[in-house]
Amino acid sequence: MESKPKLKVELSAMDKIIEMIGWMILLIIWILTLLNFTKMPDTIPIHFNFSGQADNFGSKWTILTFPVFGTVLYVGLTILNKFPHIFNYPTKITPENALQKYIIATRMIRFLKLGLMLIFSIITYLMIYTIDGKSAGLGVWFLPFSLGIIFIPMLYFLIKSFRNK
Hints:
By secondary structure, the chain is mainly α. It is 59% helix and 7% strand.
């Protein structure tokens, strides 16, 4: 196993803003869930089909999955992002290119965290609206939107990593 240089990646102003927005969205997910939890019926939609229509129902406690899982993911990826030398890279890491590759990789994780929080917040919001009868579900646009939020930034950063020698 090759050893990669252990370097501390300093956050740019943009990185700090992305982190702050991610934390704010996570807080909004918690607030939205907790403010609406007591008003929910005991049974709520818990699964949606490809067209965004509710197709399975369960306990209202299930809605807590999004803020809990979102918190675990966000905190876990934040901790992981402090150790870019343990990531897998598509190109060889050398002392000369390590810092630049680490910046690209940690920024990709940061955008992934932000995208996941955005997806969780939209699901939470639309589930609450569906429960209130103000929406018929997630909508047909939700799946392609979610896939785009995750895979477009990943593709961008992977291409950037390959081009950066």
